[in-house]
Structure formats: structure tokens, C-alpha cells
Amino acid sequence: MSLIERYRDRLPITANTPVVSLGEGSTPLISVPRLSERLGVDLWLKWEGANPTGSYKDRGMTVAVSKAIEEGAEAVVCASTGNTAASAAAYAARAGIRALVLVPEGAVAGGKLAQTRMLGARVLEVRGSFDEALAAVRALTARGSFVLVNSLNPNRVAGQKTAVFEIVEELGSSPDAFVIPYGGGGNTTAYEKALGELGLETPLYSIEAADRPNTLASAIRIASPAHRAAVEASRARVWAVDDDDIVAAWLELAREEGLFCEPASAAGLAFLRRETELRGQRVVVTVTGHGLKDTAQADRVAPPMIAVDPDPDAIADAAR
Fold first, then answer.
1. Can you list the domains of the chain with their CATH numbers?
2. Which of 49, 55, 170, 311 has the greatest CB tally within 10 Å of its CB?
């Protein structure tokens, strides 16, 4: 069942909305016992890397593109640090319309760019930052030629809130805290909206990079979050983690629990490794994107390969 069909009564969907779906949502909620013991929390991970394009962005994109088609759109546009680009390209291809994607030059992981290009989007590298690319996209959409599918589109936020619904349904109640990465703030806005709709007072922790413009976690490398005012006005508690903390958490998740995410997705775990205020509580950390999104950073931090001769003794020695 598509995400839209599952939550139709909680989404801005009408009988005339054509459902553009790739089977998004219903992602695993995974208990991680070793990390739970190490961090002193009952830790669960919402594994959003299981979405069709490998990130949580698909939750919002299915709604945004479906509504765009309902309104007669022939093309969509976004500015992106990578995941929105891939998702927009995929859902536009599914819908049979054009996708235009603007990315900051030299600042997007190669895996995400390859994915977006393979999915048929027209990709433009902007000589500037993500924030400058977003400003240009907003000016373009004001002319009426394209539909904006960044998280400034409320249909994106509506779709992304469904992650909270799934978590609460699977656990049978709300956790003691939600922890998510914070880049542009669209997902924080979505989680806040879901908590309000469910009548929950659960704390929401939004974790940003300490050095936003230069972090290795390219998915949250956004100097001026588009939703900053909304985040500041929300119940979200914003914390910053540095890149060393992100890398340590990223490696620990892969080696201890067998889950390979992209660097930005480890921000929530980096927070739990540094802070103690949630000790003893049941915590859900949203892991927003798959590790295959950014293999260049993985190559940089993972142990090197070892060259051996095709000899059993040499292999046994190297395995020690």
C-alpha cells in the first residue's frame, strides 16, 4: 500500500489526486541492543534509507508530485544538497513530467548526483551555495513555469510527518523522545506537525552540524535553514555536533549494528554519544539516508583494504 493510501485521511489528498508512488513509507523501526547498552537508552532507529530513492525525502515527494499533477503541472524544480534532487527526479519520472534540479557546485555527494542524472532530471550546478540556489529556484517558480518541490512546499511537509505516525503505531505509544538531523528544518517542521496532530508532548531534538557551511555531512550543509524561524518557534530542542562526533557515531552504527547510513544521518547518534539527558529513556533516532548516497566520505574514513596473494596462509595471516 502506498503512503498516500495508508494515510489518505491525514494528508491533503482529494478524490481527484492521482497517486504518484514508488512504494515509499512503511520503513523499518529497528531495535539496536548493543548501542542501547552502550549509550544507556532504549534505542530504536527509524531506517529511512529503505525508501525507494534511499532517503526520507520520498515521503514528502510522493505527496508533492501527486498534488502537482492534480494541479496540471508539467515540470517540477528544486534546489538540493542531494537527497531532494534524487527524490524529485524519481517521482517526476514516475509521473511522466520534467524535473529541473539546482545543486551547489562541488558540494553534493557523487552518488546522489549520479542517481539524479540517471533518473532523467536536468541538473544545473550553481556557482554558489545551496542558499543561493534555493533563492534562484524560488524566483523561477514565481514565474509560474515550474512547481517548487522543496520543503517550502507544504505538501512535502505533510508527507514527511507520516514517519511519526508509523513510529507511534509500531511502538504502540510515543517514545520518550524523537531525535532527527537538522539541515533545512523541513523534517523538524514535519515532525512537529505530526506531534501536534497526535496531541503528543514528546520532546523533539533536532541535531545540526556545528559548522554548517563546511561540515562533511553534505545533506545538512546548509548555512541558512529555510525553516529556521519555524524551528525556533517549535518545541524542538536544537543541539550542535561537530564532524568528529558525526564520524565516530557513523562508524559505530555500521560496525556495531550493521547499518550503513550517510554521514548526516548519524547526527542524532552523535548527540546521544555526547549528551546524557536522555539516559534510561526510550528514544527513536531517525536515520534519514542510506550510506550508498555518499561513498566518497566512507572511503575516506573506513579502514583500508589489504592486498594479499591468493594463498590460504597469507589470507589467514592477514585476517588476524
1. 3-55+155-301 (3.40.50.1100), 57-153 (3.40.50.1100)
2. 55
